[in-house]
Specification:
The complex is a heterodimer of chains A (114) and B (111).
Chain A lengths: L3 E4 L2 E4 L5 E7 L5 E8 L3 E10 L2 E4 L7 E2 L9 E3 L8 E8 L9 E2 L3 E5 L1
Parallel strand pairs in A: 2-11
Antiparallel strand pairs in A: 1-3, 3-8, 4-5, 4-9, 5-6, 7-8, 9-10, 9-11
Chain B lengths: L8 E5 L4 E6 L9 E6 L6 E6 L2 E4 L4 E4 L5 E6 L8 E7 L14 E6 L1
Parallel strand pairs in B: 1-9
Antiparallel strand pairs in B: 2-7, 3-4, 3-8, 5-6, 6-7, 8-9
Classes of the chains: A mainly beta (114), B mainly beta (111).
């Protein structure tokens, strides 16, 4: 089944403890992206990647890192999480980076930083 | 990137047709219009995409006038399970290849 898989679904951590949220897609998509969703602020893009080893900042990249060493994986790294990074995170992918390539989303990761 | 404007919320009853309009006055020539549906705590799901005129699939129809400055998502005979947030995206992959979601339209379907 074609899908975008995120792990974990839920994560509770403490300030400053490094964490990684994994994202994997099995559709051979070129474009992958991370979003965070907060009440009243909608979906905001954190980072995106147009292909292996090609990444760029979205609108809210501060405090996050990403890597794209393989086409299927696009992990989101929080080196030193803070409470303001408590949010619902979504990974997405699309076949290409053109505007006519719909995004496929994962089921989300709910992160709580205390 | 083309900015989009949608109603914040809409109410409807089961069995009715729902039309949600999105304004995108500065849409570029090569921009596509894409609609997504999102249920609480789930990722957005692609519904329909179009460039001009009318597009129809098994879920919805998308009407795009000749000037392409707006588009209308039409959901035929909605049910309670269509209660969700609907997002209109335009020009998602120009410039820096960002994807920008607006606030969306919260549709509430009543029995």
């Amino acid at each position: 089944e074609a899908q975008v898989t995120q792990n974990p679904r839920y994560l509770i951590t403490v300030t400053g403890k490094k964490l990684t949220v994994t994202c994997s897609q099995n559709m051979n998509h070129e474009y992958m992206s991370w979003y965070r969703q907060d009440p009243g602020l909608g979906l905001r893009q954190i980072y995106y990647s147009m292909n292996v080893e090609v990444t760029d900042k979205g609108d809210v990249p501060e405090g996050y890192k990403v890597s794209r060493k393989e086409k299927r994986n696009f992990p989101l790294i929080l080196e030193s999480p803070s409470p303001n990074q408590t949010s619902l995170y979504f990974c997405a992918s699309s076949l290409g980076w053109q505007g006519n390539s719909p995004l496929h989303f994962g089921n989300g990761t709910r992160l709580t930083v205390t | 990137l083309a900015k989009t404007t949608q109603p914040i919320s809409m109410d409807s009853y089961e069995g009715q047709e729902v039309n949600i309009t999105c304004s995108h006055n500065n849409i570029a020539t090569n921009d596509y219009i894409t609609w997504y549906q999102q249920f609480p705590s789930q990722g957005p799901r692609f519904i329909i995409q179009g460039y001009k005129t009318k597009v129809t699939n098994e879920v919805a129809s998308l009407f795009i006038p000749a000037d392409r400055k707006s588009s209308t998502l039409s959901l035929p005979r909605v049910s309670l399970s269509d209660t969700a947030v609907y997002y209109c995206l335009v020009g998602a992959r120009t410039g820096g290849f960002k994807t920008i979601f607006g606030a969306g339209t919260r549709l509430f379907v009543k029995a």
